[in-house]
């Protein structure tokens, strides 16, 4: 974490408390005299929870591959400074995207406050176009809701605006622009907001670990750096906090910890989020805590567009448990979607002829797509591998919205360090059967009855030639 000390040299005495009482219902003009210096983040690592240095105490959240924005207290007001700006985000090792975000990263930093806090957020616009910030889900005065044109004039490039309100409702929220949203959200402008309850809350339980992340999606051509902003549905990178597997950190917990995971969706489609090894309850949404009588157990919960979900469970089962979006295309990277299905097609001869015309043509998927994990194919620089991630046995063959919940008995409370792969107790791993196998008659033709071996005099198989990693619009 670094701060740019000289950033607001001319704006006043950074760090010095402004004097004067804050009016209860309006933005204090005094506040404008001294901006808190912006804190920037240069890394895409998961930062340890930020314990509140002042103000009311709470149990902080952990932002997956992200961080929480420090604040300063100014006459009882929590002051934050967001800087909307172009950022360089490493989405996984070997693949970097040029995005827009806040304070050096996309998504922006998580903002954590306590119910009843008076909050003042300075927003400086360093983008080439106007912006605004909407505080999704929160009860704010109408003029603080951030819809450009409706609630406020836009924040022009180079300008700083002040948002001020009381965090009235505890819960799980997010922030994002309400100005040229199609561009600004496709470029990665968004962040998480958590308002912790002031007192013991009947529906908000205390947990040992509280993870947060946003679902986002990008369309970056292989070899390119900047997302295509006109894409509506056919994105090729499905990410959590602008990271793609194997770039997404594991969620590390101690066995029997009570765990909460808060997820918000700012993509253009829904994501059924699935946890292995445990059942969870959806205990809350961006609309608030779910009444206990309305909760039911799930292992997958759909997070629709513009929605947020809070999952809670006790991590009783030791191991490395997959945690991912259940849409199969969302656990792959840099996919072109106009590739014909080749399963069952033996095109050894055809491929040879094509290769003489298209030298780097690759026969793809005649035994399914998992060959893609080991294939060395010509790819432009700065391209995310399609399916990858080394596991303890072999490649996990995943990308995109995939991570691992690591439950360990020996993990110390409050320790988020990756413990490495789980050592399965002897005799508890699936193994190969080596005894005799009886063969039913229908096994005798290749592929069973539905996919018989090519008949004689059959018309020749048509093979469409496509490069594997290309991506085209429809
Ligand atoms: Cu998904």
Structure explained in plain terms:
With 474 residues, the chain is mostly beta strands. 3% of the residues lie in helices and 30% in strands. It contains 2 helices and 26 strands. Strands 3, 13, 14, 16, 18, 19, 20 and 22 form an 8-stranded mixed β-sheet that branches. β18 and β19 form a beta hairpin.
H/E element sequence: EEEEEEEEEEEHEEEEEEEEEEEEHEEE
Distance between the termini: 42 Å
Strand content: 25-35%
Percent range for helical residues? under 10%
Total strand segments: 26
Give start-end ranges of low-pLDDT stretches: 4-25, 470-474
**What small molecules are bound in this structure?**
copper (II) ion
Principal-axis shape equals: globular
Structural class: mainly beta
The number of distinct helices, counting runs of at least 4 residues, comes to 2
Output the radius of gyration: 25 Å
The overall pLDDT, averaged over residues, is 85
Largest sheet: 8 strands, mixed
List keywords for this structure.
474 residues; mainly beta; five-stranded mixed β-sheet; disordered C terminus; binds copper (II) ion
Concise account of the structure shown:
The protein is mostly beta strands and 474 residues long. The chain has helices at residues 181-186, 348-357; strands spanning 2-3, 39-40, 62-63, 72-74, 77-92, 95-102, 111-114, 118-125, 134-136, 160-166, 171-176, 191-196, 209-218, 237-240, 251-254, 258-265, 271-275, 280-285, 288-289, 297-298, 300-303, 308-314, 319-325, 388-390, 395-398, 402-408.
């Amino acid at each position: 974490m670094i701060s740019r000390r000289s950033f607001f040299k001319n704006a006043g005495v950074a760090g010095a408390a402004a004097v004067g009482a804050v009016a209860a219902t309006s933005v204090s003009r005094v506040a404008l005299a001294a901006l808190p210096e912006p804190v920037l983040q240069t890394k895409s690592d998961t930062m340890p929870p930020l314990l509140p240095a002042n103000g009311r105490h709470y149990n902080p959240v952990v932002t997956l591959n992200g961080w929480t924005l420090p604040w300063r207290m100014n006459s009882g007001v929590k002051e934050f400074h967001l800087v909307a700006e172009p950022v360089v985000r490493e989405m996984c090792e070997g693949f970097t995207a040029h995005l827009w975000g806040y304070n050096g990263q996309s998504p922006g930093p998580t903002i954590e406050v306590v119910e009843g806090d008076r909050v003042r957020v300075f927003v400086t616009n360093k983008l080439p176009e106007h912006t605004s910030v909407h505080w999704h889900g929160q009860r704010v005065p109408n003029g603080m809701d951030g819809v450009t044109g409706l609630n406020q004039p836009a924040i022009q490039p180079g300008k700083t605006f002040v948002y001020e309100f009381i965090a009235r409702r505890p819960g799980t929220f997010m922030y994002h622009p309400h100005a040229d949203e199609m561009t600004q959200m496709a470029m990665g402008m968004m962040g998480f907001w958590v308002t912790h309850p002031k007192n013991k809350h009947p529906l908000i339980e205390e947990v040992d670990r509280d993870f947060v992340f946003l679902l986002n999606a990008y369309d970056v051509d292989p070899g390119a750096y900047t997302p295509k902003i006109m894409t509506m549905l056919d994105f090729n990178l499905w990410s959590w906090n602008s990271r793609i597997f194997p770039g997404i950190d594991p969620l590390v917990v101690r066995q029997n910890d009570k765990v909460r995971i808060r997820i918000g969706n700012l993509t253009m489609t829904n994501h059924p989020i699935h946890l292995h090894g445990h059942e969870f309850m959806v205990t809350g949404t961006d609309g608030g805590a779910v009444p206990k009588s309305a909760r039911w157990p799930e292992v997958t919960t759909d997070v629709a567009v513009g929605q947020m979900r809070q999952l809670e469970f006790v991590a009783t089962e030791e191991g490395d448990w997959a945690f991912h979006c259940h849409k199969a295309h969302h656990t792959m990277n840099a996919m072109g979607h106009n590739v014909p299905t080749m399963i069952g097609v033996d095109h050894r001869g055809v491929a040879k002829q094509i290769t003489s015309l298209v030298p780097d043509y690759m026969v793809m998927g005649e035994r399914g797509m998992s060959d893609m994990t080991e294939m060395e194919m010509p790819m432009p620089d700065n391209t995310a591998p399609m399916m990858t991630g080394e596991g303890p046995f072999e490649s996990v063959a995943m990308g995109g919205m995939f991570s691992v919940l690591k439950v360990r008995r020996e993990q110390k409370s409050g320790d988020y360090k990756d413990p490495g792969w789980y050592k399965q107790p002897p005799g508890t791993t699936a193994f190969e059967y080596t005894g005799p196998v009886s063969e039913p008659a229908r096994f005798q033709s290749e592929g069973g009855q539905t996919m018989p071996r090519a008949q004689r005099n059959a018309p020749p198989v048509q093979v469409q030639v496509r490069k594997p990693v290309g991506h085209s619009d429809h």
